[in-house]
Amino acid sequence: MITIFLVWGIVVAVCCYLWPIFGIRKRKMGEPPLENGLIPYLGCALQFGANPLEFLRENQRKHGHVFTCKLVGKYVHFITNPLSYHKVLCHGKYFDWKKFHFATSAKAFGHRSIDPNDGNTTENINDTFIKTLQGNALNSLTESMMENLQLTMRPPVFSNSKISAWVTEGMYSFCYRVMFEAGYLTLFGRDLTRQDAQRTHILNNLDNFKQFDKVFPALAAGLPIHLFKTAHNAREKLAESLRHENLQKRNHISELVSLRMFLNDTVSTFDDLEKAKTHLAILWASQANTIPATFWSLLQMIRNPDAMKAATEEVNKTLESAGQKISFEGSPICLNQMQLNNLPVLDSIIKESLRLSSASLNIRTAKEDFTLHLEGGSYSIRKDDIIALYPQLMHLDPEIYPDPLTFKYDRYLDENGKTKTTFYSNGLKLKYYYMPFGSGATICPGRLFAVHEIKQFLILMLSYFELELVESHAKCPPLDQSRAGLGILPPLNDIEFKYKFKHL
Ligand code: HEM
Ligand SMILES: *[C@@H]1O[C@H](CO)[C@@H](O)[C@H](O)[C@H]1NC(C)=O
Ligand SMILES: *[C@@H]1O[C@H](CO)[C@@H](O)[C@H](O)[C@H]1NC(C)=O
Ligand SMILES: *[C@@H]1O[C@H](CO)[C@@H](O)[C@H](O)[C@H]1NC(C)=O
Ligand SMILES: *[C@@H]1O[C@H](CO)[C@@H](O)[C@H](O)[C@H]1NC(C)=O
């Protein structure tokens, strides 16, 4: 795949050499320092792509906290001082939050524009997400996820003979399988008529999802899906299975999906397959970050005996006070939102795991020329330029997070064992110090559900299984940097672990 990138890059570069003059911007008075890069059109894209964190740190040393880089034909203003983040977000009226998201979604999933301004639909997708992922809807979503996780994780009934044996499996592939299956059932409902065929169907979709997701960074970078035959096939098969006629046979479909299936959208010009492609976009949003986030949380917890002990105690206490009994045959464990929200140790473990693995790029487009006022000074921004935050710079800043590459399970706990919210940069208290879910108007609408899912997963792993790493002092696998910018980075290689059902 690397070679395809290179070939494509060279083609683009050669084309652009034919009319180099138009491509180069001159810095004007009041604008941030500018890096045009060496390659026309692509600008700094190759250096940025190779190692975004190092590239940005280097420019920060050279230019200070605010600078502009040309990236694939766009001028991107990076704001790198976390003390400025809240100031940036104050300029909301100059930002188009959605333009970039809509365009990326259309390119990657193959539906036409869902921007109401383009006249294909009247749906306000932002309202749909907030209505179906938060508030009352979050209750049923969370409840349903807890049942589905147990459906996926508990031993099948009548199989007592083998359940006490150790199983060895890659931890990433375990998390992938369990979270994908349970998450899929939660969003798209269960097929009660064909229970046995259902698992085959979902595992088949999981394979297609993996194939498609593998090329997602390339699609987001603007390469057409036709370059990737297997991934293209996989995407079409996934969309096919999310057509209305197939979903109709399922029960307990989440509001997120059912509301969009029966949307009385007066100007929707989308046919069945195109609607299915928008469902696929939601499937991707719900899984692509959650799966690696779950993996890192489980791995870090198991690797750190103190974390494991504190988590086990917290879970034990919570289950006792909720009157829940752990058993393989009885009713599934059930915790309400209040109980899930009151788990500071698990919260801290999850936050610390995401701090170390998240590499999202937060992007807004300038709707008009305007002046960006920050603490350190004011900057002229041109229409259609991009304002970007790269929170990994903050997450790994040793001043805010001492010893930033070390996992400390209690980093987000205060001296009373409650959630800690005071972090400092330059002696000043930070308003934004933890941003794996983005910020402002485009903050992830599924973030509350995501944290519930991961907590539920950890609670059930601790309750039902004995857990061990195959190599007890195994090194943490490195992050897959090829997905930098997209969210939580997966591990570059899997790591084996052993689990067996507890004697209950
Ligand atoms: C640990 C798990 C997750 C992480 C780290 C995460 C992170 C993010 C980030 C960084 C964005 C883009 C925000 C921006 O552009 O500023 C986003 C968007 C989104 N996320 Fe999540 N997410 C997670 C889980 C979920 C789940 C479980 C769901 C839904 C069931 C979900 C639904 C969405 C949707 C629908 C959007 C698009 C919002 C829009 O463009 O209007 N996410 N997420
Ligand atoms: C729908 O969206 C596409 C871009 O994806 C655009 O070209 C087209 O004009 C839009 N409107 C209609 C009514 O199809
Ligand atoms: C759409 O219309 C149908 C029939 O008129 C109705 O049953 C359904 O509840 C409506 N859906 C929404 C989301 O308003
Ligand atoms: C919690 O710990 C106590 C004491 O060690 C033990 O007796 C009890 O069974 C545990 N409860 C659960 C739900 O694991
Ligand atoms: C989405 O809706 C929420 C709540 O109504 C609002 O705060 C946010 O600004 C909206 N985002 C966009 C991009 O319109």
Automatic annotation (TrEMBL):
<keyword id="KW-0492">Microsome</keyword>
<dbReference type="GO" id="GO:0071333">
    <property type="term" value="P:cellular response to glucose stimulus"/>
</dbReference>
<keyword id="KW-0479">Metal-binding</keyword>
<dbReference type="InterPro" id="IPR024204">
    <property type="entry name" value="Cyt_P450_CYP7A1-type"/>
</dbReference>
<feature type="binding site" description="axial binding residue">
    <location>
        <position position="444"/>
    </location>
    <ligand>
        <name>heme</name>
    </ligand>
</feature>
<dbReference type="InterPro" id="IPR050529">
    <property type="entry name" value="CYP450_sterol_14alpha_dmase"/>
</dbReference>
<keyword id="KW-0349">Heme</keyword>
<comment type="pathway">
    <text>Lipid metabolism; bile acid biosynthesis.</text>
</comment>
<dbReference type="GO" id="GO:0005789">
    <property type="term" value="C:endoplasmic reticulum membrane"/>
</dbReference>
<keyword id="KW-0408">Iron</keyword>
<dbReference type="InterPro" id="IPR002403">
    <property type="entry name" value="Cyt_P450_E_grp-IV"/>
</dbReference>
<keyword id="KW-1207">Sterol metabolism</keyword>
<dbReference type="InterPro" id="IPR017972">
    <property type="entry name" value="Cyt_P450_CS"/>
</dbReference>
<dbReference type="InterPro" id="IPR036396">
    <property type="entry name" value="Cyt_P450_sf"/>
</dbReference>
<keyword id="KW-0812">Transmembrane</keyword>
<dbReference type="GO" id="GO:0042632">
    <property type="term" value="P:cholesterol homeostasis"/>
</dbReference>
<keyword id="KW-0503">Monooxygenase</keyword>
<keyword id="KW-0256">Endoplasmic reticulum</keyword>
<keyword id="KW-0560">Oxidoreductase</keyword>
<feature type="transmembrane region" description="Helical">
    <location>
        <begin position="6"/>
        <end position="24"/>
    </location>
</feature>
<keyword id="KW-0753">Steroid metabolism</keyword>
<dbReference type="GO" id="GO:0006707">
    <property type="term" value="P:cholesterol catabolic process"/>
</dbReference>
<dbReference type="GO" id="GO:0005506">
    <property type="term" value="F:iron ion binding"/>
</dbReference>
<dbReference type="InterPro" id="IPR001128">
    <property type="entry name" value="Cyt_P450"/>
</dbReference>
<dbReference type="GO" id="GO:0008123">
    <property type="term" value="F:cholesterol 7-alpha-monooxygenase activity"/>
</dbReference>
<keyword id="KW-0153">Cholesterol metabolism</keyword>
<keyword id="KW-1133">Transmembrane helix</keyword>
<dbReference type="GO" id="GO:0006699">
    <property type="term" value="P:bile acid biosynthetic process"/>
</dbReference>
<keyword id="KW-0472">Membrane</keyword>
<keyword id="KW-0443">Lipid metabolism</keyword>
<dbReference type="InterPro" id="IPR030681">
    <property type="entry name" value="Cholesterol_7a_monooxygenase"/>
</dbReference>
<dbReference type="GO" id="GO:0020037">
    <property type="term" value="F:heme binding"/>
</dbReference>
<feature type="binding site">
    <location>
        <position position="107"/>
    </location>
    <ligand>
        <name>substrate</name>
    </ligand>
</feature>
<feature type="binding site">
    <location>
        <position position="289"/>
    </location>
    <ligand>
        <name>substrate</name>
    </ligand>
</feature>
<dbReference type="Pfam" id="PF00067">
    <property type="entry name" value="p450"/>
</dbReference>
<comment type="similarity">
    <text>Belongs to the cytochrome P450 family.</text>
</comment>
<protein>
    <recommendedName>
        <fullName>Cholesterol 7-alpha-monooxygenase</fullName>
        <ecNumber>1.14.14.23</ecNumber>
    </recommendedName>
</protein>
<dbReference type="GO" id="GO:0070857">
    <property type="term" value="P:regulation of bile acid biosynthetic process"/>
</dbReference>
